[in-house]
What we know:
The protein is of the alpha/beta class.
Amino acid sequence: xxxxxxxxxxxxxxxxxxxxxxxxxxxxxxxxxxxxxxxxxxxxxxxxxxxxxxxxxxxxxxxxxxxxxxxxxxxxxxxxxxxxxxxxxxxxxxxxxxxxxxxxxxxxxxxxxxxxxxxxxxxxxxxxxxxxxxxxxxxxxxxxxxxxxxxxxxxxxxxxxxxxxxxxxxxxxxxxxxxxxxxxxxxxxxxxxxxxxxxxxxxxxxxxxxxxxxxxxxxxxxxxxxxxxxxxxxxxxxxxxxxxxxxxxxxxxxxxxxxxxxxxxxxxxxxxxxxxxxxxxxxxxxxxxxxxxxxxxxxxxxxxxxxxxxxxxxxxxxxxxxxxxxxxxxxxxxxxxxxxxxxxxxxxxxxxxxxxxxxxxxxxxxxxxxxxxxxxxxxxxxxxxxxxxxxxxxxx
Length: 396
Ligand SMILES: Nc1nc2c(ncn2[C@@H]2O[C@H](COP(=O)(O)OP(=O)(O)OP(=O)(O)O)[C@@H](O)[C@H]2O)c(=O)[nH]1
Ligand SMILES: [Mg+2]
Ligand SMILES: [Zn+2]
């Protein structure tokens, strides 16, 4: 076998191997057992496979520092995973009180401890720590705080996260930014109109939710602006077909709010979606008692619009916590490579075994079962389009 063929064969085997592991994981009902971060599986993978994998050819296709960074992130994630048990982690942490971060802004944060709220700075060592993330602390983090005078404290340690929503950092795309930590589910909020529904963003969030083992619920708001019911139903049909919970709401008329309330009850939920889709309005509708920290931007827009400028964490009167995030115009998918992407599109992975090439990217190969299914209308055009757009952004 020529060197080139040998390398190709190795790559193919490696891809197949990881495909098999992922499929086995899916079969074992990982989705339903939830709360088992995927990074755990990376760690398992590293035992059986990183050691003897053809890393050399793998490394060649990555930026120089990328492999180093991934290994360090993975090993840190692995270590963090090893002590997910919070009680156990507390024993290892310095003495102090445990609290939850409810707000973060430039080097300071608010921590809720036993109903009290402390304004805290971060211990210097924390800032310098190499975590692979651009922010050391995020809303929802469990932290150990030592008191520092009345109503003040210093965050000594950030406890291991049981889950998080992360995205590539806006300024350094090779690093990840933790949007929120320790959440159960992601409520993906879109508006039918104003701003117009953007399915690619929904799909990006779905991939991220799956990658982070967060339950995803889709909420299409402003249904009072739906003019054509058939068009509305058609746009959302792919998500119904995939078994997602899709809510249709109007914060204005109250439609769907009771159902949304049930989705949020007793869970910790992060809301995400473009600016202006109605995230804060929905939360106010669900719980009129909420004091949503919003900022008037009338001086900019002239409309007296309230926009959320930072992540806020609130308890709901019905039980549960919600985290309102500022609108994100774009949302990059972090921590996934191109060959892994089809795994996050259940309807693509379902037919991809029929593709002629084992490592088919489903973009332009001949005899591609995925492209055929799109042409036959069996896979939604919009979903396939999202796949190609996300694929283009991912590292090899
Ligand atoms: N017609 C209609 N308008 C709505 C609805 N929900 C919210 N709005 C309006 O949409 C605008 C934006 O609502 P917000 O709740 O501030 O949106 P947001 O998603 O929190 O926006 P950011 O905080 O900027 O991310 C406001 O003018 C709301 O009154 C709805 O169901 N129907
Ligand atoms: Mg808002
Ligand atoms: Zn294919």
